[in-house]
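Components:
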Amino acid sequence: MSGVEEYVLKSNGLRVLFHHRPETGVVTSNITYLVGARDEERGETGLAHMLEHMLFKPTTFDIKKGITAGGAIQFERDTGCSLNANTWKDRTTYYFSYPTSHLPRAMEIEAQRMTGVVLTDKALDPERNNVLSEFDMYNGDPGFALSVQMCGTAFHSHPYGHETIGYREDIEDYTAKKLERFYRNYYRPDNAVLMVIGDVDAATALTHIKNTFGHIQNPATPIPRFSIKEPKQESLRRVFIQRPSTTNILSIGYLHAGFPSEQWIAGVIMADVLTAGPESILHRLLVDTGKASGVEGSPEPSSEKNLGAINISLAQGVPHTEIEHLVLAAIQALSAKDIDSLVKKTKAKMLTSELFSRQSSMRIAAELTEYVSSGNWEAYGKTPDLLRSVTTKKVLDCMRESFIENNMTIGHFIGKQ
Amino acid sequence: MKQHIHTEANYSLATIVADKSRTVTAYITVDIHKEHTVADQAVQIMYPDALLSGTDKKDREAFLYATNLLGGSVGVSVSGSCVNISIKSTSETFAKLLKLVEEMLLTPAFPNTQLQRIRDTVTNELHESKEDSRSIAHEELLNTIYGAGDRKYSYDIDETITAVKRSAAKQLRSLHTDVLTQAWICSIAAPQAHCDLFKKFIQKTKRLHSLQMTTAIHQQKPPKKTAALKDVPSQQNIDFSIGAPLPFTLHHPDYIPLSFAITVLAIPGSFAGRLMDTVRAKDGLTYGIYGQLEGFSGTEQGYWRIMTFFAPDKATQGLQATFREISKLYKKGITQDELDKFKIILSTKQTLLGDSIAGQLNNLHSYNCHGFTLQEIEERKAKITSLTLKEVNDAVKLYLDPATLTIGGAGPIKAVQKDIETFIKSVQ
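Structure:
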């Protein structure tokens, strides 16, 4: 692969990734701003995500045209295009999927949202309530609540220590002024990557991009960046949460390498070997024996070292500590021979999965986004080869390095009935 | 890409011929509903794990390993008393994977040695589902709409756990016999040679098992203005499923106009519906609020449902706002502008299917499950394009009376239960 071409708009440095998929009649465009939860300060957690919501409100351009719903939402109502957005540690992403003829309008809306978002307290208030509703939706999930506390414990200094949605208390304190500062700092051509994937030729796409984004100037100020090194972890860290619930979760967190390095891929294979499917090590150890109702774990892509976790939903009455000791002892005892066949099947599954994920413009854009935010989009085309090159020894080494005391944060969610 | 549906008495096969594709996706759906006892519910929950627990030639571990080493996947699930088998692989490995599927279906072991493990696993999963407030709210609604013999009815979780503990291998074998002898609904997206191979496999399997005709129980109840609420104190929000039974089946002339009206009210996964514009964007009361017609088939009557969630302190306000919009729709109908715009929206959704073979296959399989021919599919799409305002608003007037609605809810309900019960009584 990859069939992806890179262009840079000379006037302002906007990077463009283009991939042609003929005969589908559909284009997906995706703009990824290199700003996410990692760029937020204490007391302002979740600001990147809140701003993401505000980009669906009417811009100054919409107001001039009398569009009350916001340009993006009006686009959906007029045409039936698919649209959405999401925020993660290192990025904020907006996308549309539409019949090819709507490309000019999609580009125009994206360009207008780069400079014309209206941030007033009046516009903010109802949307803040929606974000609080979203927060409560996530926070009702014991696994999420536990992961928030574990991230905060695993990172004492690095901004990966808070979840993308932020803390409820911070969300309640947002002001339009805070959002405005964040917007002006990070929403600019030289901090964005625009992807156009689908049934359109490069010349046409680039013409529309130049016409809509070409005039936007970057601010004279540099893009603010934190450069924070997490202090060395010296021992095992622990988190306990108690809530009225019938659920009991043991979560074994470990720091893993950034995406898309070879170590990251080894870590994904390791998580799969341990938790994916009935044949995995921990499924056989815990689920097949009735000690747990489920095990799962897969690291999320982020550009720097981050916290991954093996999450175990315990069966009724099974103590957290018993399973914790059992799991860590079982992982310690694993040899290359024990995991070799599982590594082979995981690699085969992942290679097939790569083929499936490259069969729609929406999925290609979603996957490419993670490479873009890691700062290495070219790796997108190299992943299958990298995957093939990971050996059982590398996976075992990854296991040995992951589950040692000064790399782990363990969480217990204790349901009180 | 060329699409085709071939129908015989004991199977139908929909194909999307994708000669350039390097992957294969195939589905088999089998409707096994006869009656719906708690024992049936328990065995249906256990069946997927049991079917994947080995064959006469391979034990569970060997079977799963052989499947996974091909890089493919074989998924088995049961939903609404329909068994769904999905097969996904590269085009290179499909033939080998299909052999394994054949082995799984023709010579499953259902070994007693696995039965206790499956009972324990399912019991643990059922205990965990006691906090799934979204599903519980939906079940509370469905149990108001359907009687206990209907496939859409859900038995109490503890009752189901007791039935799981009492289950025997012979019940699983009996269910599997139903899977083999009932009509198969199959669909595949693949290069032509792989489609042919899949067809041969279906024909071979169906030749070995004669078609059994069965009578299925269906028990829809009249509408009931009530609140069916369950306390799930661990949740932060209260999940709601608000709906009412509809006394017609999939092919009734009111189905498409009414479905269109619900799309205007609450199109799933979109910001374009009225409820997203009002209850979410203007009122700021929820993160998401969607709705659709559900549970219809050629022989079974379905229902309409709005699904959302509110914070406990905003629950009554949220319900009031939701019912305000439903009431407005009921009294005034949709507008000409909405009719025109949503025709475009629905037409674009069809165009967007062109982006992925998977999307096209899912759409085709869904029609195939309901017995549509390609011509009938086209006629249905054409009917949406030609809908009139009168057709839609007549259907709205006939079926969307807010005073027929049940509020199914689950979450930290105790503090607001009385308010919600008082509210539903006040709805006119």
